Amino acid sequence: MQSANMLLRKIVRSSVLPFAAQHGMKKDLFLLSRTLSLSVCLKQDKSYEPSEKLDLDEWKKVMKSGMQEEVSETISEPKELSSLAAARETLEMWRLAGRAVPENISEEQLKTFMECPSKSAKKKYLKYLHLKELHKKNHKRKMDEKRERRLEAQDQASKTDETKNNSFVCMLSSVMDKAYNWRAAQSMIFGQPLVFDMSYEKEMSVREVTNTVSQIVLSESCNRRSVDPFHIHFCNFKDDSLYHREFIKQYREAWGRLLITVTDQCYTEIFPKDKLIYLTADSPKVMKTFDHDKIYIVGSMVDKSIKTGVSLARAKRLGLETAALPLEKYLLWSTGAKNLTLDQMMHILLTLKDTADWKKALEFVPKRKYCGFVNKPVKELKKTLDQINTLKLGKGREEEQKQFAKSYPKK
């Protein structure tokens, strides 16, 4: 009898209960199960005791609880779907109200939004998703713009390549290169020397040495294209050094064909000391004019990483004369250090060599560092400002007017 009851329970749970849960047959199910169990019991053993009725009632409770669990599982899914739909409707209402709500939200994010404990937490979470979506859109827009610019640059490069393929343009460029190389070759014999001091490698990082070499490459190309180029010397240059490796990366096969002098000797061993002038921004002596008989030395370094006074200390240790560019004399300096890049120094020295005009030469100073040019030195401008202030205050008015009239006569 017990085995029959177990078999009947398995059949009811496997087939009858799901069918009844789908079609809403709750009451009929329990009556049917009870009659089936009673009929089986009566057929097998008609002399059953009243205690077996209590077992039947317990079996009814067990089956009822199992059916409720299975029905709750089938009903929980539509409830969850309805709650997600309600959450999406609230998000749509907030979007129409003008709040920061993302346009696209996934199901997981929606569940996280529903699990937020308070309304303020929900608002913060939606704002976070909104900002994240805006960041993705901006990143995508920037990448698209960058791709468009790259395609435009490729189109322009292809057009320029087509023009370069023209025989006349190729012939003109080859002729100009020959002319530049001829000037550089002449400068190695008759030109004024210009020294680059290559002894600062240990005081710079690899990145700073790379920047220094890039500036020297620009200086060499500018010098080669000038009307009267310098004879460039790389002094204190060591083979297989970091400078050497970076120059090979920049020039490749052209490194061995450069019309410059490269040596591991110091400049004091090649030139007389009385003709050497070390150009440094820390020098107390200001350069007034460009001397064609002197040999100027430029430190091959990035000034941002070097401590103040390193090049000046090196020049003093070697017993050399120093000089600084008269930036304050001709420029109304605003902000920043008075250190210039190597290619800017080369432009300034070449312009001074050709024209001897400080105004034209100092045009290569970055315009972000100064406000404009002055016709007179800054000290004289300060004196005139003091005179104007005394005239306003009425102290020594007549004397100041006479001095002002003498220093600034009417033309």
From TrEMBL:
<keyword id="KW-0949">S-adenosyl-L-methionine</keyword>
<feature type="compositionally biased region" description="Basic and acidic residues">
    <location>
        <begin position="142"/>
        <end position="160"/>
    </location>
</feature>
<keyword id="KW-0809">Transit peptide</keyword>
<keyword id="KW-0496">Mitochondrion</keyword>
<dbReference type="InterPro" id="IPR028564">
    <property type="entry name" value="MT_TRM10-typ"/>
</dbReference>
<keyword id="KW-0489">Methyltransferase</keyword>
<dbReference type="GO" id="GO:0070131">
    <property type="term" value="P:positive regulation of mitochondrial translation"/>
</dbReference>
<dbReference type="GO" id="GO:0032259">
    <property type="term" value="P:methylation"/>
</dbReference>
<keyword id="KW-0819">tRNA processing</keyword>
<dbReference type="InterPro" id="IPR038459">
    <property type="entry name" value="MT_TRM10-typ_sf"/>
</dbReference>
<dbReference type="InterPro" id="IPR007356">
    <property type="entry name" value="tRNA_m1G_MeTrfase_euk"/>
</dbReference>
<keyword id="KW-0808">Transferase</keyword>
<keyword id="KW-0175">Coiled coil</keyword>
<dbReference type="GO" id="GO:0160106">
    <property type="term" value="F:tRNA (adenine(9)-N1)-methyltransferase activity"/>
</dbReference>
<dbReference type="GO" id="GO:0005654">
    <property type="term" value="C:nucleoplasm"/>
</dbReference>
<feature type="region of interest" description="Disordered">
    <location>
        <begin position="137"/>
        <end position="160"/>
    </location>
</feature>
<dbReference type="GO" id="GO:0005739">
    <property type="term" value="C:mitochondrion"/>
</dbReference>
<feature type="domain" description="SAM-dependent MTase TRM10-type">
    <location>
        <begin position="180"/>
        <end position="372"/>
    </location>
</feature>
<dbReference type="GO" id="GO:0097745">
    <property type="term" value="P:mitochondrial tRNA 5'-end processing"/>
</dbReference>
<dbReference type="InterPro" id="IPR025812">
    <property type="entry name" value="Trm10_C_MTase_dom"/>
</dbReference>
<protein>
    <recommendedName>
        <fullName>tRNA methyltransferase 10 homolog C</fullName>
        <ecNumber>2.1.1.218</ecNumber>
        <ecNumber>2.1.1.221</ecNumber>
    </recommendedName>
</protein>
<dbReference type="GO" id="GO:0000049">
    <property type="term" value="F:tRNA binding"/>
</dbReference>
<dbReference type="GO" id="GO:0052905">
    <property type="term" value="F:tRNA (guanosine(9)-N1)-methyltransferase activity"/>
</dbReference>
